[in-house]
Amino acid sequence: MNQLRQWYEGLAPRERVAVIAGAIAVAFALFYYALWRPLNVSVEDGRVRVTAEAEQTRWMLGVRDEARLLQSSGSQRSVQGRNESLLSIVDSTSRENGLGPAVRRIQPDNNDQATVTLEKANFNQMLFWLRSLQSDYGVSASQMTVTRDDENGTVQARLTLTRGGA
């Protein structure tokens, strides 16, 4: 520390001003890049995450309400397609409900059960499709795995559909 002071005092007045200005500039740069900027970036990232989670929560609450409405309005009509194979029912109804491009695989397990794989399926359309299968054809999902997709409102799903009493 003593040597630094001696070196500083040995400088010309202009050099001392330049050293002080340089030290202040380095101190500001360290403060900005080591503290201020990372803190602002992390706060902004947090805001973006909170906004995205809030949007996702609003969407999920809306879907929950739609699902409850669909569940409560499940009036029983006569069951169609008793003489059709489950595979053809699933294929035709998925296309009718706008899920044709999302259906990746339909694997029949037996005459009254099939496993359907959907990718990038619109969640609301999938709910309406399942309601239609249930109310019109007596086909219900006995097992279901649904995961949120990267795109807003779309999901990937694996459904085991079962026709009851056919």
Q: What is the spatial order of strands in the main beta sheet? A: 1-2-4-3
- Radius of gyration of CA atoms, rounded to a whole number: 32 Å
User: What is the overall shape?
Assistant: rod-shaped
Q: Biggest β-sheet, characterized?
A: 4 strands, antiparallel
- Structural class determined from secondary elements: alpha+beta
Distance between the termini: 93 Å
Number of strands: 4
Strand content: 15-25%
**What fraction, in percent, of the residue positions are helical?**
55-70%
Uncertain regions spanning at least 5 consecutive residues: none
* SSE string: HHHEEHEE
**Mean residue pLDDT:** 87
Count of helical stretches = 4
Q: Could you explain how this protein is built, in words?
A:
It contains 4 helices and 4 strands. With 166 residues, the chain is an alpha+beta fold. A 4-stranded antiparallel sheet has the order 1-2-4-3, with helices on one face.
Structure keywords:
rod-shaped, 57% helix, 23% strand, 4-stranded antiparallel β-sheet, alpha+beta, 166 residues, single chain
In short:
The chain has 166 residues and is α+β, with helices and mostly antiparallel strands. It contains four helices and four strands. A hairpin with a 2-residue loop joins strand 1 and strand 2 (113-122).
